[in-house]
Amino acid sequence: MASTNSCTLELESKVSAPRKFRACVMDWHTLAPKLAPHVIDNTHHVEGDGGIGTIRHYNCGSAVPFNTMKKKVEFLDVDKCECKYTIECDGVETSTWNIKMKPTANGGSVAKVECTSKSMQANDMMLKAKESAAEMFKSVEAYLIANPNAYN
């Protein structure tokens, strides 16, 4: 029987919320194979225009316990830097992600990431998801700091 687990992360960044959101959410399908090939090997567009209803297929790398992932955008507000999407791993819906990025007083941002996982291995999946999300945000931050004109 499948169990349900959830986790919340708050990740601070020196990068502004709009830049971080554009890189982490709107263009992750392009950046992931470059910044984290051990997590995402390659991606392709399935349907949609990038907004609500968009589906992208990801072929996963060696660092994750599944082969493929499909991500569907359920909610998107680019101006508020908020989104919600569902993920299927190897054809089974496994998680729902809510991401909200807010500006901080120092010009950076804080991302609040909430994930609910429903799978046979929910505890293991949640731990891997939490580690992957934190790694993803750190790698994007490093990329954006090294490339100050990207995603402006």
Describe this structure in words.
- With 152 residues, this protein is an alpha+beta fold.
- Helix content is 28%, strand content 43%.
- It contains three helices and seven strands, in the order E-H-H-E-E-E-E-E-E-H.
- The chain has helices at residues 17-26, 28-35, 122-146, and strands at residues 3-13, 40-47, 55-60, 68-77, 82-89, 92-103, 109-119.
- It has a seven-stranded antiparallel β-sheet.
- Strand 5 (82-89) and strand 6 (92-103) form a beta hairpin.
- Helix 1 packs across helix 3 (122-146).
- The chain is globular and about 40 Å long.
- The termini are far apart.
Task: Kindly report the spatial arrangement of strands forming the biggest sheet.
Answer: 1-7-6-5-4-3-2
Could you estimate the helical fraction of the residues in percent? 25-40%
Sketch the major β-sheet: 7 strands, antiparallel
Using the CA coordinates, give the radius of gyration. 15 Å
- The DSSP helix count reads 3
* Class of secondary structure makeup: alpha+beta
* Poorly predicted runs: none
Q: What oligomerization state is this entry in?
A: single chain
Residue-averaged pLDDT:
89
* Beta-strand residue percentage: 35-45%
